[in-house]
Specification:
Blueprint (H helix, E strand, L loop, with lengths): L7 E3 L20 H4 L1 H16 L1 H4 L5 E3 L10 H10 L7 H9 L6 H5 L3 E3 L6 H11 L4 E2 L12 H13 L4 H15 L16
Parallel strand pairs: 1-2, 2-3, 3-4
């Protein structure tokens, strides 16, 4: 995909059989879905960072679901814990493996290279947090349609309402709604390339 210069979509997956605690047989209260899926996304992002993939392929484009899940909210913890203190809590074989992982940049810099969609069920605070972390050039409009009680329209309305609440520059708003996906997919802008349109 890096050679083709096209994005990869990363979506979490975990079922109820994945127990919340080792002493239990299944997850309870749908924790596997509400908290498990964002954890899976965050863990996958971390494994990709520490695998060196983003260093080996600096132009690779990976779009994460739920605005990068836990990563933007835990920016401070990640910056300190995986920056200045990486390895201080590790022993045994895992420490040896960690020492083999040599990244020329701090892990937080690689996390910022990911892209993320706005599928947060209309959460203004969550979208603001993700935008602050990734920047508007790395955020794409997404809604989780059709998985709301209305079969899709509710999430779409909620996400648009949340974006309207935020104080965004018109150019950033355009990037999020359509510009970023057109750029990532290397597609022409249907507005500016419409037949008969006179360019200025």
């Amino acid at each position: 995909m890096a050679r083709r210069d096209l994005p990869i979509w990363l979506h979490p997956a975990r079922g109820a059989a994945f127990a919340d605690y080792a002493t239990e047989d299944t997850s309870r209260y749908e924790i596997w879905w509400a908290l498990g899926w964002p954890y899976e996304t965050s863990a996958a992002m971390a494994r990709l960072v520490f695998s060196g993939l983003l260093e080996q392929h600096p132009t690779i484009k990976i779009i994460t679901h739920h605005l990068g899940a836990m990563i933007p909210f835990l920016e401070g913890r990640i910056g300190l814990g995986w920056g200045d203190q990486l390895g201080s809590r590790t022993a045994g074989g895992d420490l040896a493996h960690l020492r083999e992982t040599v990244l020329p940049h701090r892990p937080l810099e690689y996390f910022r290279r990911f892209y993320a969609d706005t599928a947060l069920s209309g959460s203004v605070g969550g979208i603001r947090c993700g935008l602050d972390f990734f920047g508007a050039d790395h955020v794409l409009f997404g809604t989780d349609c059709p998985f709301d009680p209305e079969g899709g329209p509710g999430f779409i309305r909620g996400t648009i309402r949340a974006l309207d609440t935020l104080d965004l520059a018109d150019a950033d708003r355009a990037r999020i709604y359509h510009g970023n996906i057109l750029r990532l997919m290397r597609l022409p802008d249907p507005v500016t390339t419409r037949p008969g349109r006179v360019s200025s």
